Amino acid sequence: MISRFLPTGKRSFKSLSEQEILALAISSEEDDARIYASYAEGLREDFPDSAKLFDEMVAEENQHRQWLIELHQEKFGEIIPLIRREHVSGFYNRKPDWLVKPFGVEEVRNQAIEMEAQAFRFYNAAIKQTTDASIRKLLGDLAAAEAGHMAAAQDAEATNVPQDIKDEEAANEHKQFVLTYVQPGLAGLIDGSISTLAPIFATAFATQDTWTTLLVGLAASIGAGISMGFTEVASDDGVISGRGSPIKRGLATGIMTTVGGLGHALPYLIPDFWIATYVAFAIVFVELFVITWIQNKYMETPWLKAVVQIMLGGVLVLGAGIWIGQW
To answer: What tens digit of pLDDT does each residue of 145-170 get?
Structure first.
């Protein structure tokens, strides 16, 4: 009970009065409706069938809130105390919609089902703290509704989002992931890994100085990353091509370009020139294999073609760098 008088502290759930339980239920239903509406809006363009599912859940949450408000008006009047989930110790919290949407439509659906399960547990706990018959009845009805809503959400998904549509949505989501992240990132990785081979190894064999080679490698990698990133951002705003945010693509390209170059530049932190060079050689072949694997997995490039394009090209550039470094 002391927590009632601590303005910066959280209330314990057991300390809530019947009026406060109703107020908490009202704010929770309102929050859930807003979260579902945000999900629906975020999915509407690319996943209209899933958006329809969340529209229905918004209507359901609004109906629950209306029942609670009407009972509060009947029992306690028009003024509803301001109490929310974050005011109650140990009470469940909802993930903000921006922390869920990036993980995909399936994760959003699963999150909605978990939200309904949490609401069911809340109403069951609230029933135990009330003695008023009408309040207990409504809380029990809402607990049953939430339990049914979990099943309804799954049934509605089967109705509104049958397997063929789910497969189509998953394919669209995968395609968008490839266009926004994989393609730009792969282009950056190829550029960073292959285009920096010649200057780094030419410097290495020309000077046999690991520190100079490291500095050239850092400059080439970071410079190429910045250049490739800005080039990707400026090349396409994504509106017509559907390739997604230019900022996301630019970051993917720039970061992977830098990573690709640093992979065989950082071994020259090792003071011994030949040990550093052998380690760098090994990393180069790992990089080329990874690029080949990504091309085969995400770009559906046949293994043989990917090997010829990447491994052969990389070896030629590496050879050119070593050859020039001998001059």
So the answer is: 777 666 655 554 555 445 554 555 55
Report yes or no: 200 and 263 within 8 Å, Cβ to Cβ.
Answer: no
Tell me the average pLDDT of the chain.
78
Taking the domains of the chain in order of start, what are their residue ranges?
2-161, 166-325
**Residue 302: is it exposed, middle or buried by C-beta count within 10 angstroms (0-12/13-18/19+)?**
exposed
b (16+ CB within 10 A) / e for 180-214: bbbbbbbbbbbbbbbbbbbbbbbbbbbeeebeebb
Question: Could you say which architecture CATH assigns to the domain 2-161?
Answer: Up-down Bundle (1.20)
11 membership: H or E segment, kind and range: strand 11-12
Question: Is the distance from CB of 142 to CB of 67 less than 8 angstroms?
Answer: yes
Q: Which two tokens stand for residue 104?
A: 């995909």
Q: How many CA atoms lie within 13 A of 59 on its CB side?
A: 7
Handedness of CA 268, 269, 275, 280 (dihedral sign): negative
Give residues with Cβ within 8 angstroms of 137, minimum separation 6.
none
Angle CA 301–307–308, to nearest 5? 100
- For the chain, how are helix, strand and coil distributed in percent, rounded to 5? 80, 0, 20
The token duo for 185 is: 């990132």
Could you say which DSSP state residue 93 is in? -
CA distance 159 to 101: 22
Which tokens in the block code for residue 83? Answer: 């109490």
Q: In angstroms, how far apart are the furthest CA atoms of the chain?
A: 94
C-alpha closest to that of 97 among 178, 22, 43, 158: 43
Q: Encode pLDDT of 302-320 as tens digits.
A: 777 777 777 666 677 767 7
Which tokens go with 320? 């050119």
Residue 168 CA: distances (Å) to CA of 50, 179, 296, 321? 12, 16, 22, 47
Q: Kindly list the distances between the CA atom of residue 124 and the CA atoms of 115, 121, 134, in Å, as whole numbers in the listed order.
A: 14, 5, 15
CA separation for the pair 141, 62 (Å, rounded)? 15
The burial of 37, by beta-carbon neighbours within 10 Å (0-12 exposed, 13-18 middle, 19 or more buried), is given as middle
